[in-house]
Amino acid sequence: MLVLGIESSCDETGIALYHTERGLLAHHLHSQIAMHAEYGGVVPELASRDHIRRVLPLTERCLQDAGCQRSDIDAIAYTEGPGLAGALLVGASIANALGFALQKPVIPVHHLEGHLLSPLLADPAPAFPFVALLVSGGHSQLMAVRGVGQYELLGETVDDAAGEAFDKTAKLLGLGYPGGPALSRLADQGLTGRFTLPRPMLHSGDLDFSFSGLKTAVLTLVRQQDTLDPQTQADIALAFQEAIVEVLVKKSLAALKQTGMKQLVVAGGVGANRQLRQQLDLAAERRRLKVFYPPLAFCTDNGAMIAFAGAQRLRFANHDYAFSVKPRWDLS
Ligand code: KG4
Ligand code: ZN
């Protein structure tokens, strides 16, 4: 079965073709980052309009790369939510129009399920069960994943998401949008030990996170500086990254201990963070645990994870082409 995946929940148009026997055949991504950068964040109306321009050309490119025709598509998966309503509606309406034209089933996919299952696109891939650390711009959650559709929420952020904290802190340091990758690069130049920031909820005894206080601590630190020279900026970036990484690593280990599981899967944009990966790998090696990451290209939003999640959910396909979107939607 050949599944076309359409991701349009935020500022990335991701299109992919996943074959249930042959694997991922093609994927293309158009990022709107440059378009939104001058506004310092995503402008929903601009995002929707750009998705409209990109979905079909990227689909044609995927078909060409895979050597397939439109008529070869067996099912179409699209992100139903959560995300920006207008942006989601673009993917949903094109997916259903294509499905209707080709008389093929359409599969609505939960964006976070796409992220959760994306490490299964890697080789070697983890086998169920595993604990998933899902850290993106909109979510920070720990989940016990026992199979497709069997997700138990173990803990989540009570305020900002990890990616959101990276982005807001980057803004405080005068870095562009999106700030996560830029802040991480800046932290590489930082000196350890000059500043120490709090580790929020590290000892809360549960698996929840809180990141908004950390951002406020950075603001206080920035205000205390006479001048924000490049080295000071880098040192603050490093202190912030160290704090957030320590919390994510310790809570992930606690989740593994609580569930008795031996495998951790890291998904979502913050999963691309190098220091997080290093610290997790180090901790896992000591404890004989295994950590899996999606290929870097599939850490942030992409069409491959939607095509793949859709392929796992073919039995839930919709054949009547009535569609909706769910801008707010809990996975479990
Ligand atoms: O999963 P994603 O692409 O989109 C959402 O569904 O939110 O995640 C985007 C988030 C942004 O907040 C971005 O700043 C963050 O992931 N991010 C990073 C890195 N790369 C992306 N944060 C820290 N370090 C990175 N290398
Ligand atoms: Zn995402």
From TrEMBL:
It catalyses: L-threonylcarbamoyladenylate + adenosine(37) in tRNA = N(6)-L-threonylcarbamoyladenosine(37) in tRNA + AMP + H(+). Pfam families: TsaD. Its EC number is 2.3.1.234. GO terms for cellular component: cytoplasm. Binds 1 Fe(2+) ion per subunit. GO terms for molecular function: iron ion binding; tRNA N(6)-L-threonylcarbamoyladenine synthase activity. It is found in: Cytoplasm. One of its GO terms (biological process) is tRNA threonylcarbamoyladenosine modification. Keywords: Acyltransferase, Cytoplasm, Iron, Metal-binding, Transferase, tRNA processing. Fe cation binds at H111, H115, D301. Substrate binds at L134, V135, S136, G137, G138, D167, G180, N273. Residues 24-308 form the Gcp-like domain. It is an enzyme of class 2 (transferase). Its cofactor is Fe(2+). Its main location: cytoplasm. Belongs to the KAE1 / TsaD family. NCBIfam families: gcp_kae1 (TIGR00329), T6A_TsaD_YgjD (TIGR03723). Required for the formation of a threonylcarbamoyl group on adenosine at position 37 (t(6)A37) in tRNAs that read codons beginning with adenine. Is involved in the transfer of the threonylcarbamoyl moiety of threonylcarbamoyl-AMP (TC-AMP) to the N6 group of A37, together with TsaE and TsaB. TsaD likely plays a direct catalytic role in this reaction. This is tRNA N6-adenosine threonylcarbamoyltransferase. It comes from Leeia aquatica. The lineage of its organism: Bacteria, Pseudomonadati, Pseudomonadota, Betaproteobacteria, Neisseriales.
